[in-house]
Write a structure and sequence with these properties.
The chain has about 90 residues and is α+β, with helices and mostly antiparallel strands. The protein is built from 4 helices and 3 strands.
Length: about 90
């Protein structure tokens, strides 16, 4: 019985770790790595359609100029960071 409880506890902790890790994504860009926290953005914006249009809901961050079209223009509107080094870390 103790083994079962310990195994369940391990599974819960591992599952929580995976769920938290999935909220943060690191994109490799020419300008440097960008760490994107999806949960923080979703909590602040409260409207998925501000970033996601269509199905499946996906932004092509690899597209040339995507950072200016999507990220920087939104950051200017909502008061987020807009300097290159604020998001791109070498």
């Amino acid at each position: 019985m103790k083994r079962l409880i310990v195994m369940l506890m391990v599974l819960v902790f591992v599952g929580v770790g995976v769920a938290v890790a999935a909220d943060t994504v690191v994109y490799e860009a020419k300008q440097g790595k960008v760490t994107f926290n999806h949960k923080a953005h979703a909590d602040k914006l409260k409207d998925c359609s501000k970033c996601h249009q269509g199905t499946p809901a996906k932004i092509d961050v690899t597209k040339e100029g995507a950072h200016k079209d999507t990220c920087k223009s939104c950051h200017q509107q909502v008061g987020g960071p807009t300097k290159c080094g604020d998001c791109h870390k070498k």
